[in-house]
Amino acid sequence: NNKKITIAIDGFSSTGKSTIAKQLAKQLGYVYVDSGAMYRAVTLYAMQNNFIGETYFKVETLIEQLPTIDISFVFNEALGFAEVYLNGINVEKNIRTLEVSGFVSKVAAVPEVRKQLVDQQRKIGENKGVVMDGRDIGTVVFPNADLKLFVTASAGTRAERRYKELIERGDRVDYNAVLKNVQERDYMDSNRKDSPLVKAKDAIEIDNSNMSVEEQFEIISDLVNKAILRA
Ligand code: CDP
Ligand code: CDP
């Protein structure tokens, strides 16, 4: 059975969603879409144009500018996955800072932002053969996805994973600031009105607090093979 399926991976911040999604896309020859990168790119745009800061959010101005914000993915042969571009510029590194993480949940709560990005995500996935990770992929973007995963891990584990990543790329961050950001985003993403982070009824929950990357890949590969057989 070489039928292409749609795989939706949702869950809390730093649970390992993109790690799983990239591995699956590589193994299956599917397209990987990091939907969080799209929300991060819009956030970076808002920051660069001073539409958002510690004490203000010019949300109407951002909404007006939305049609001029072009987000695209360009496959990087050397890395083996697609990098995100904002108006033609590679922003893959700039969107991963703790500063962007501090504003992104506010930007992602704006319904107009979500509508534009969800439309684009559905277009990318219209021919199946896609693995997309985010917060609302199984609930809103692809409610008919062939396989839905909901990934969880304890907040401390997730903050440690993210802290390690940021330090490794040379960002000088404080562990407690990372933990606070993870917890604040969990709360904001789960409690917003438009497309909150919730487990889809038909999603399979995986708690990987005590799983290695290899262990989780083994378990998930098995679920994927079964979903392909069902399709
Ligand atoms: O990688 P990390 O778990 O830190 O987050 P991400 O996947 O890059 O997503 C960053 C933020 O974008 C999330 O905290 C959400 O506020 C937002 N997001 C969303 O609202 N819907 C999605 N489908 C993906 C991300
Ligand atoms: O995409 P998301 O924010 O959910 O997480 P990620 O960027 O895939 O993973 C965050 C970090 O946790 C990465 O450095 C992974 O290698 C690590 N990780 C881990 O150590 N053990 C797991 N079972 C899953 C992820």
UniProtKB/TrEMBL annotation:
Name the reaction it catalyses: CMP + ATP = CDP + ADP; dCMP + ATP = dCDP + ADP
Q: Give the location in the cell.
A: Cytoplasm
GO BP annotations, alphabetical order = nucleobase-containing small molecule interconversion; pyrimidine nucleotide metabolic process
Give GO MF terms, alphabetically: ATP binding; dCMP kinase activity
- Cellular component per GO? cytosol
- The Cytidylate kinase domain extends over 7-225
Which CDD domains does the entry mention?
CMPK (cd02020)
Q: Which domain of life is it from?
A: Bacteria
Q: Which Gene3D superfamilies match?
A: P-loop containing nucleotide triphosphate hydrolases
Its main localization is cytoplasm
**EC numbers:** 2.7.4.25
Q: Which UniProt keywords apply?
A: ATP-binding, Cytoplasm, Kinase, Nucleotide-binding, Transferase
Binding-site positions, ATP: 11-19
Top-tier EC class:
transferase
Family, as annotated: Belongs to the cytidylate kinase family. Type 1 subfamily.
Q: What is this protein called?
A: Cytidylate kinase
**Annotated source species:** Snuella sedimenti
Q: What is the lineage of its organism?
A: Bacteria, Pseudomonadati, Bacteroidota, Flavobacteriia, Flavobacteriales
